[in-house]
Every structure is written in C-alpha cells, then in structure tokens.
Amino acid sequence: MSQALSPEIAEPAAAAAVRTSKLALFLDFDGTLVEIAPSPEDIHIDRRVPVALDALRQRLGGALALVSGRPVALLDEMMAPYRFDAAGLHGAQLRLGGEDAPLAAPSEALRVATRAMVRFANSNIGILVEDKRQSVALHWRLAPALAEEAMALMERLAAEIGPSMRLQRGKSVAELVPATASKGGAIAWLMQQQTYAGRQPVFIGDDITDEDGFATVNAASGLSIRIGEGESCARHRLASPTALRRILLGAADGGELTLETFLQD
User: Which fold has domain 7-102+181-263?
Assistant: First the structure.
C-alpha cells in the first residue's frame, strides 16, 4: 500500500492526476527493480521485468533509462537481451541511444585506496569490496558490527584522495565515486537530450544515493518515488520492489502508464 502524500505536496499529487503519457521514466536498480541481496552478486531479477521495460520504452518513445550505482555492463547482463539508456556508477557512466560515453582510466590514488579496502576485507569476515574501476564500494551488510570501522576507513581514504573523488553513502555500503558524478546530474543531462526533452520526469529509487535524483526531478515538477522507508525528499512512496513490479508489469501488459499510474498502488 502506498504511503499517503503529506499536505505540503498535495498540489503535485493533484497535477499527477492529469492523464498524460508524455513521461520520461528513470529507474534505479538495486532495491528498486530487484530486492536488496546480502551481497551484490546475489541479486535475482524477475525475467518478466526486462520484457516489460522494453515494452514501456517503446510506449514512451524511448524515454526510459536505468540510473544505478552498478556498472552499465552489469545492467546489460541483468536486462539481456535488451540494452537500455543508462547512467551507471552513480552517473559516471552514460549511455544514450546505444552509444557509450568514453571513460577515463582509474587514477593511481583510487587504485591505492582499493588495495587498502581489499586489505580491510581480507582481515574481516563479511566485508566485501566491489571494484567497478571508476568507483569502488565497500559493503558491510554481512558484518554490521563493523559499520563504524568500515565508514571510518572510507572517510580516511576519501580525504587522502582529495577533491577528485567523493564519498557516497548507502545502505550498509560506502563508495568512492568521481566527484563530478551524481544520479541527479545524470538525470538532468538526459532530460536535455532529444528523446527526453520536454517530458515530465519520474524517478524511482530506494536509497540515500537516490536523493539528489529525487531533488532534480522535484525541481523539474516531476514525480519522485522512494521505495520503502527512510527519510527522503521523494514526494511519494511505494512499499517494495514487488509493488513497483506490479505497476510496471500491469502497464506493459496493455495498461496505461501515466503519472497517476504510480499513485494508485
């Protein structure tokens, strides 16, 4: 069941009731299209989802993109055989219309930090390092007692690297990402491209890493939706990835996809 909109955002909800198909749909991956797993490798995707997203992409005139902390290559693997527009690594990777933007090689400073993270993981059961080349994440979901120590390490490494990288916090994870990359920035860039320009954005995510995306969409008079609980600037909520999948599958199977669609669950 959706959480009711608070009074201060009642006006956007009323606007959302206007039936329109002129949308641009942006979707996070982990915790949104799939449930959060104990480790990044343990995720499972409902195989109906890629098919549904392809159908919705066609209905939206191509204006559908995945916006994730995952590398674009991993998103492609999960969505095979389909390749969607995507912003991977929190916006450090961009793909539009099948064309990938070039990526710079990781810096020596990031490689040094990665080695320090691996040493920490090797010394502590349950700590996982996810090396995405342009960014590196440290996970402690399987070792919650080490959260404070893990975060302290990541804060130290971020300070040692300096302004070229920033520390991105999430659910039982912290990640070193390029300072210029953000999901909000990626959404703003996509909204300037021909396929997306002039449409009303909808962004659905579940974590702290999605907050700047919500803020970007709010500023564009779009619809921001947070999956699950937690403090957020998102203006609407869905209970779980299951609730979102029900909406997406229903819309792909002959239903309508409007702003109102996302407010009815």
Answer: Rossmann fold (3.40.50)
